[in-house]
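Sequence only, no structure available. Ideas?
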Amino acid sequence: MRRIARRLVEEGFTVDNSDYPSRTDRIEPLARGVIERALERMGSDVGPVHFVTHSMGGMLVRAYLQQNRIDCLGRVVMLAPPNQGTEVVDYYNLRAPFLGRMLQSVLGPASGQMRTDSNALPARLGPANFEVGIIAGTVNRNPVFGPVISRMPSDGVVPVERTKLAGMSDFLALPYTHTFIMDKTVVQDQVVHFLQHGRFRREAAAALAATP
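Reply:
I predicted one. Tokens follow.
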């Protein structure tokens, strides 16, 4: 997230680029620790506090805001979030459990929470009760996870439909992959626009979609 952090600084935002140990813990304790420490670093005299997340980072924000109130909360932009889980986790947990255990040993317990069923964490977090814009990727080039979801539009990790969240303020699908979506200038432009205006630039997205 370093490139998009630099872009936000250039646009006048004060940025705390928070990392978190996703391979060592589950979403709920990660959310409490990471977000509370970031808020402490930002201090109490800041203006609106916005969040820009990638992938599972969006789940941390949802989990935190389900249990906590941020009085100065601004807007949230989620890039490629598994808001409804992903069939990739379903597949490796149910159809290939040995591979699923191997992946969780590498990716950590939080990844195993991203199932698509109604008892999984993404569904239990409920709809958005905050202002959020979501950008999904539509280019599947992932050689490991991509074949599992090859029959549906996706970014190679999360199907486009699974990124959507009830109560979201705006949504865009752009032709980028899961891993590098945050590095794209067009995506960064849209993030800045949403933070400033509460909506994406539809004309810019339409022009990109029309480009051969």
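The first strand starts at residue 49 and ends at 54.
Hope that gets you unstuck.
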